[in-house]
Amino acid sequence: MLSRDGMVKKIEAVEIVDKALPTVIKGSFSSSSVFAISLATGSTILPFDAEAFDANDEFDLSTHTYTAAQDGVYAISVQIEATASLGIATNFGVSIHHNGSIISQNSFANVGILGINATPPVRQSTNLVALAAGDTIHFEVLGEIALGTIDLNGATTESFFTIHQIR
After folding, report:
1. For the chain, what are the domain ranges?
2. Which of 23, 63, 71, 117 is the residue whose CA sits 20 to 30 A from 167?
3. What CATH topology corresponds to 23-165?
4. What is the pTM of this model?
5. 74-100, pLDDT tens digit by residue?
């Protein structure tokens, strides 16, 4: 390869292929059934532990964290669905975190009456963000401390996240 300054550089074929493949990930929960998640502190990391695909193997299923392998602009989205058993909560939502700080969230009151949702049980958040190699992304469920434990729908069509490098 010829650099901008006219120098000839040797590059491994794997490096060229890796640079050409943009990040594209779709993840979810490994269980498609309803499962309980503890919300004792007001927020907790969503334990996404399954992938439909991860082109560059950048999402860590054990820490539930994405680490960018290359600089770029990324489209990030997350969606969760609570069951009707959530009941009444003045705050229930989902957030996207970049290097530990919230960059996007969707949170509002939730009302369930006798096991029937009076407000939508789905919370979604999306954002575009410029990431540098090594930056991290994770997702959290938000709620008032009084919620204690909440039940989420684990189906891949209801609770999931996507990360797509667009540039």
Report:
1. 23-165
2. 63
3. Jelly Rolls (2.60.120)
4. 0.81
5. 999 999 998 766 656 677 889 999 999
